[in-house]
Amino acid sequence: MTASARSFASFEAAFAKAFEEEISGETFFAALAETEPAPRRAALWHKLAVIENRTDAALRGFATEFGVSPADETAVQLSGRAEAADWQALPFLEVMAIMDRDYPAYVVEFTNLLDRAPEAAKPAAQLLIDHEIAIIAMARAELSGKEDPAAPLDAYLARLAGAADGL
Ligand SMILES: [Fe+2]
Predict the structure, then answer these.
(1) Which value, to the nearest 10 degrees, does the dihedral of the CA atoms of residues 161, 164, 166, 167 take?
(2) CA-to-CA distance for 94 and 34, rounded, in angstroms?
(3) Which of 45, 51, 108, 123 is most open to solvent, judged by the fewest CB atoms within 10 Å of its CB?
(4) Does residue 119 form part of some domain?
(5) How many whole angstroms from 24 Cα to the centroid of ligand 1?
(6) Ion ligand 1: protein residues whose beta carbon lies under 5 Å
(7) Residue 137 Cα, ligand 1 centroid: separation in angstroms?
(8) Does this model's pTM top 0.85?
């Protein structure tokens, strides 16, 4: 069943969930990278773990400011690893098809989050949208078999690095 966007009671609740899912996302994709036997595919999972890490880092200051950091970050990291088991059991292209189908719901969630974000947090909310779009583009490129799936991920990471330099 296609995932649908969740709704949250407040901006803080939405931000807390997004922040937590970037933390668990990093360990989720790292676990997939560790068990993927094909180096090219493992490299894609590794890039996703890096993206989640960088996005998490961009959100962290606001998570502290809003008081929405998870109480037990280690437990969140472990949950990401545990969740990876479902996808580790599936063929790679099936996982790409799930991402293509389900991840647009996150774009909707993050767009709603951006709409409610305080002005100062809007760039961080935009990063959430952009990282999800890059990940979906990766899955679609992989499924097409014609484009380089790493390209949208590299472009996002390059932009993030450029933005950090400008701060
Ligand atoms: Fe993410």
Answers:
(1) 180
(2) 18
(3) 123
(4) yes
(5) 9
(6) 22, 25, 52
(7) 14
(8) yes
